[in-house]
Write a structure and sequence with these properties.
This protein is an alpha/beta fold and about 280 residues long. It has one domain: Divalent-metal-dependent TIM barrel enzymes (TIM Barrel), CATH 3.20.20.150. β6, α6 and β7 form a beta-alpha-beta unit.
Length: about 280
């Protein structure tokens, strides 16, 4: 197991800073990420944000892009949206191009199940995007975001049944658990598809403040990464809505989570990668 380092998406920082009444500018957030001991972040596809990432001594591990992947390829604005985002990431030395399959909605109706035809098209679209960005040195993975079992199962199947081997999974542990799936079982069943992670722990559908508590077996998951020979980033998504009732500052929750992951990786005999963090 080789860990490239410890990263985080930025949306969760923005939400927490807003909830705490703090300066939620990108400058303040990236400063907090660096102070928390992160090695990298997942910037939005904006050149000015990438410049701030570098100015704070951080790397870009990957970039996250939400798309209606079940729609026809021509509707995805690949040249206007996808290609520029991929090029920005590649220029910054990032590797993980993370695609989030948007939910299927019709007007104001609730989220609907995607048909099998739409799931196949979703897999085909991700394969085409993966082949498009491969010359840039990027790998494409699907980030699961559905909160219901059948919805999450469909998005998972769009990769495992319908996408080419170029497409992997960015396993979001919190959303998988919320949807009634076991993220560890996904790793056991599809080891060759595991390209990345967004780590969060949960009590039921409520996210926990950091990784050290919750119902997801994070230690067991790291053991599985050793077993499959995982090589990649460990990225956090410590989403903390009001129901979480966080007590510590965001930076401290991130420090503790990084330290916990590093401890688990070291215990598995893996290369813990870069980054710091305070001991528990």
């Amino acid at each position: 197991m080789i860990i490239h380092g410890y990263s985080s998406n930025l949306y969760v920082w923005q939400e927490r800073y807003k909830m705490d009444g703090l300066d939620d500018s990108m400058e303040a957030i990236l400063r907090g990420c660096a102070e928390a001991g992160l090695d990298a972040v997942e910037p939005p596809p904006k050149p000015e944000v990438y410049a701030l990432v570098a100015a704070n001594g951080l790397r870009a591990s990957g970039s996250y892009l939400g798309l209606a992947l079940h729609e026809p390829y021509e509707a995805l604005a690949v040249d206007a949206v996808v290609r520029p985002a991929a090029e920005l990431l590649a220029q910054a030395g990032g590797t993980d191009f993370i695609l989030n399959p948007n939910a299927k909605r019709v007007g104001a109706e609730p989220v609907q199940l995607k048909s099998e035809h739409e799931l196949k098209r979703q897999g085909d679209n991700m394969t085409r995007i993966a082949r498009l960005v491969e010359p840039l040195g990027l790998k494409v993975s699907m980030h699961n975001h559905a909160a219901a079992y059948e919805l999450a199962d469909g998005d998972l199947r769009s990769v495992t049944a319908y996408a080419g081997p170029e497409v992997g999974l960015c396993v979001d542990t919190g959303w998988a658990h919320t949807a009634g799936h076991d993220p560890l079982e996904w790793v056991r069943r599809y080891p060759a598809r595991v390209f990345g992670f967004h780590f969060r722990n949960q009590f039921g559908a409520v996210p926990t403040e950091h990784l050290l508590e919750g119902e997801i077996d994070i230690a067991g998951l790291i053991g599985l990464l050793r077993d499959i020979g995982y090589a990649g980033w460990l990225s956090l998504e410590l989403w903390q809505p009001k129901q979480t009732e966080p007590k510590l500052p965001m930076a401290e929750d991130v420090r503790r989570s990084i330290a916990y992951l590093r401890e688990l990786v070291a215990g598995c005999g893996g290369d813990g990668g870069g980054g710091g963090g305070l001991a528990r």
